[in-house]
Amino acid sequence: MVRLSDLHPVEAEHLLKRAKDMPAVGPGDWVTPPSVEEATVAIVSTAGLHRRIDPPFTVGSLDYRLIPGDTQFDDLVLSHISANFDRSAFGEDPNIVFPIERLRDLASSGEIGGVARWHYSFMGAMPDPSQFEQAGEEIGRLMANDGVDIAFLVPI
Amino acid sequence: MATTSISLIREMSEAVVPPRALWVPFPLGRPLGAVDDSEFQKNVMRAAFSLLDTAIKPTIEDYEIKAPHDDLNENWSCPLNLGPASSDALSERLLAEVAMLRPWAIETRHQRGRTLFGVTGAGEDQIDDLARAFASIADAGDVISEPVVDGISWAFEMPLLLRHMADDLRTFYHEAIAAQPGDSSPDHDDLNRWIFSETVLGETLLLVADGLTEASDMPMAELVRGLLIPEGHYNGGSAFPEQVDFPIGQQAPAD
Lengths: 156, 255
Description:
heterodimer, A: about 160 residues, 5-stranded mixed sheet, 4 helices, about 15% strand, B: about 260 residues, mainly alpha, 2 domains, 3-stranded parallel sheet, globular
C-alpha cells in the first residue's frame, strides 16, 4: 500500500514534507469530455520514460518526450532520477507504467473510442508542479489538435 | 482537455487538487498494480475512466482492490549465491559479482527480448566496463572527473552520471534475479535489503555516496547522493541534504 505509514519512515517523512510544500495547481476550468466510449485517450506519464533515441531527462527537466502510439516496448527506457522505486516491474511488464496495450484492448472492446497517435512523458519528482504549466498547456493544445478527448495521467 | 489520473501518494494529490484522481493501493513504480495481468490493469483503468462520467467536481476516489500476490513476497531471499567475501580489490570483487550474475541477466534479456540497461550510454555488452569505472570512482573517491571508457559516450554529465551508472548496475542485478523463479518476487524493499546487505554493489554505492559527501562543495553533489541511495539506506537515514536546492528547467547535455 502506498500509505505513508507503509513506507520506510525516512521516505515517508520526505514525501510528507514534499506534499506540504507543494503548491496547488488546481482546480482549473472543469472540462466534461464526450462519453468514454466515444473518447480518444492519450497517456501522459511522469515516469521519465522515453525512447532510446531521445535525450534522457535530467534533474528538473520541464520538457517532454513524445512516445508514438506504435512504439515497441524494447525501445523504451526510464531515466527518472528517483532511487525510491525499483524499475523491475516496468522491466517485467511495461504496461504497468505505460499501459498502451491495455488502451488498445479497451479500444478493441469498444470501451473507449480510440487510442491517440501520440503520448507524452515528463520527468516526475518535481517539487513544484506548477513549473509544468507552459509544457502542459503546449501538449494540451497538441493533443486537442490530434483529436484527443482524454489525457490519462500516470505517475510512477 | 479532460483528465483523469492515477494517484500513488494521496497527500500529494490532495495538495495539487487534480480534477479526477484514483488513489490506488500499489507500491511506487507499479501504478497499474500487477504485472502481466491485463484484466487487473484494465479494471484499474476502467475505475479511473469512470470518474469522467461520475465526477462533477475535483474528486479523489479510493481504489480498494489490492494487487494479486501483493503479500507473497515476505521472506524473499536471493536464490543466487554470490560467493564468499574476499580481500580482493573492490573492482575485482564487483566484476566477479557481475560475472556470477551475467548468465541470468542474459537469460532475462533473452526471455523478454529487451533490457532497461544502457541509459548511461553504455551498450548492452559493456556491463564490465561500467562496473570497473564505477568501482574506480568508489575506490578513488573522485566524483568530479568524468570516467573515460573506450566506446562509451556518456549521456549525462558528472555528478548526475553517477546516479545513472548506479541505476544501470542495479538494472543488471534486478534483471539477473528476475530469471530465477523462486517462490515469490522481490519488492523494492527486498531488492534494497539485498543490494545493501549482501552485495559488493551495495558497498560500492555507499563508497560513491561518501565521495559525494566529501565533495559537498561541488554543485549538486549532495542532491545526487540523495538520488543515488534509496531512503533509509545511507547510515540508516536519508542521503538527501537537509536543504535541497532543486535545479529546475535543466536540459540533457547535447550530443
